[in-house]
Amino acid sequence: MRKETRKFYEMKANVIHAIAHPIRLAIVDYLADGEQCVCDIAVHVGAQRSNVSRHLAVMLKAGVVDCRKDGLRVLYSLRTPCICSFLTCVSNVLREQVRSQNELLKKI
Questions:
Q1: Which domains does the chain carry?
Q2: Do the beta carbons of residue 59 and residue 15 sit within 8 Å?
Q3: Average pLDDT, whole number, for the chain?
Q4: Cβ–Cβ contacts within 10 Å for residue 98, how many?
Q5: If you placed Cys at 42, which of 7, 52, 81, 101 could pair as Cys (CB 3.0 to 4.6 Å)?
Q6: Chain-centre distance of CA 85, in angstroms?
């Protein structure tokens, strides 16, 4: 594999790693509806603001989210909303796994 190709895969893995946590996935789903402040995100995911801020910092560093200040509020949005398509694909994989397991159980 070429060095450039390997680097590109590493960059992709960093983005996937940045959302690979249940709270971060919930944040991405919530931000799919548009820009939200940290306080509302924390309420939605059921976590402390400080914890949510740390998760958002990871996603910000990876380029998953953008942020801007509006007075005292910090608002976050998805940098590329197409990441939700990836998560839809993941959900489809899970549905197929469940379907396959149910089919297997019916045969027992």
A1: 3-80 (1.10.10.10)
A2: no
A3: 95
A4: 9
A5: 52
A6: 11
- Judge whether 38 and 52 are in contact, CB under 8 Å: yes
Indicate the burial class of 25 (C-beta count within 10 angstroms; 0-12, 13-18, 19 or more).
middle
What values do phi and psi take at 66, rounded to 5? -120, 160
Between the alpha carbon of residue 37 and those of residues 64, 77, 91, the distances in Å are 16, 9, 26
| Predicted structure pTM score | 0.89
Query: What does the pLDDT read at residue 4?
Result: 95
* Per-residue b or e along 26-44, where b marks 16 or more CB atoms closer than 10 Å to that residue's CB: bbbebbeeeebbbeebbee
